[in-house]
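Our collaborator T.R. sent over the components below with a one-line note: 'Predict the complex.' Nothing else. No constraints on interfaces, no templates requested, no preferences about which chain binds where. So this is a plain run: every listed entity goes in together, and whatever single assembly comes back becomes the starting point for the next discussion.
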Amino acid sequence: MLRKILSSRIAVLLLLAAMIAIVPVLAPSSFYLRVAALVWIFGLAALGLTILTGYAGQVSLGHAGFLGIGAYAVAVGPAKLGLDPLLSLLLGAVLCGLVAYAVGKPILRLKGYYLAIATLGFGLIVALVLTSEGAITGGPDGMQVPRVVLFGWRIAGVVPWYWISGGALLIGALLALNILASPSGRALRALHDSEVAAAGVGVDVAAKKLAAFVISGVYAGVAGSLLALMNGFITPEAAGFMHSIELVAMVIIGGLGSVVGAVVGAAFLVVLPQALTVLQEYEQAVLGLLIMVFMIVLPAGIVPSLRRLVLERAA
Amino acid sequence: MAEFLQLVFSGLTIGAVYALVALGFTLVYNASDVINFAQGDFVMIGGMGTVFLMAAGLSLPVAAMIAIVAAVLVGLLLHRLAIEPARGASPVSLIMITIGASIFIKGVAQLVFDKQFHSLPAFSGTAPIAIGGATILPQSFWVIGGMFCVVAGLWLFLEKTLIGKAVLATAANRLAARLVGINVTVVLALAFGLSAAIGAVGGILVTPITLTRYDVGTLFALKGFAAAMVGGMGNPIGAVVGGLLIGLMEAFGAGYLSSTYKDAVAFVAILVVLLVMPQGLFGRRAVERV
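Returned assembly:
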């Protein structure tokens, strides 16, 4: 019974919806709301990686590149091309999908760490272009992101963006859960376990991997757009190597292959640095220490490890 | 021609350091299947340690020795306190632990040292030596020569000593190595210690040319990892060739194409190599069992 509840799709969505609904009640100030909104946004990006890494088993160390493309789409689109911000967001998502297709097609033939280094190169090149093409992107100083105006209503401030990012996370989670429960999702898990065996039972391994890469790229792109729109400002650092590492870390710390885990991992890596700022110069050391301790104590990630614990208690 | 030669010199110099970092990656990977992302931070410990010990009044050789020992200690502690307790965890989890360790080491380095850039005096003067119309700094000879000494020493250790052969045996087949009585845990600790020493040596040699700071490790880890992959993960010769190759590609990219995009040039070249040879230049073709 408990096992069924824990693994049902509706339970996962209700849990996420409850978390999104309860934070504004508990948050004492808009600062906390902003941090929570960041958790939902990075949770969305981590969800994409859950499909790619957690299910299909393909490592990417360059997904901040897609985050950067999505972020700069909503900055460059309105400012330089005169496009509507929401249209820019959509175009950014489409662009991420196309780039993911073009990049993924050749490099997804690589396996394991070889794929990791190829995606790392991709992310690095995106960050480099964003930094160097100052005429379009404002260079290393970044650029302003125009505010969104919807039906004459100017969306600014933390509260509307909190609900928009929360809604985006829920939609993203719903799509991810449906993908993972579909035949395609099972095909991804099959090729994760063994590509040869999966191909043997008729899974088009290359096509499925590419689909997972494109989907995860679009997720990261939309998350990047939301991040830029909420902050109203964007720098090339968004596409940086450390950000890519952070995204992967969220998925692994939360628990590979778990939808809730992706959000928990995002919360871990977004909230913790904020909480640790009180430690000032000790911040980085403590953050590294906590990551190590959590991975040593809960090697399968927070959510799967806790889930196992709950099930063992119940049994 | 002179310009070409100049680029070759600078490419080989920085490439030699990448090669040393890649060698460190290779040693740990062979013993454990883990990519140790804290590898670059050993380079920083070597450089920063020497800078601060010399500032405390020690001579260069003494300071360098102590810095190497310190790096080895950090490597052994990393293995004993973070990798060993998580034995049996998946490689992804272990890699995450090394990423945590890398953040931790940088955090501690900020406290122990500082956040400034530092340099070391060149070991044997700064008068450039002219060769074929190009010039080369004496320190470059130290870096390239030091790299070859480390490679030769490592080769002798692995091929000619019993414990070195135990390392090779563990790399070839961990279970079989354990069955013939090799203590795999000791071998893994040794791999971490050795890779730390190699990284620290690289850091000490290159600091007079490139400067050092608490966070330079990230860049070296990135380039060293790339070098190890181009060469073919797990192959020491591949690591050296890969490191030198990336150094050369960066130098040529900066010299002939665009200095802003030198990293892009290097990575595009890496992608091309990997697409033609998916296992790297010297990597073995992996056969997947079902």
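Summary for T.R.: The mean pLDDT of chain A is 89.
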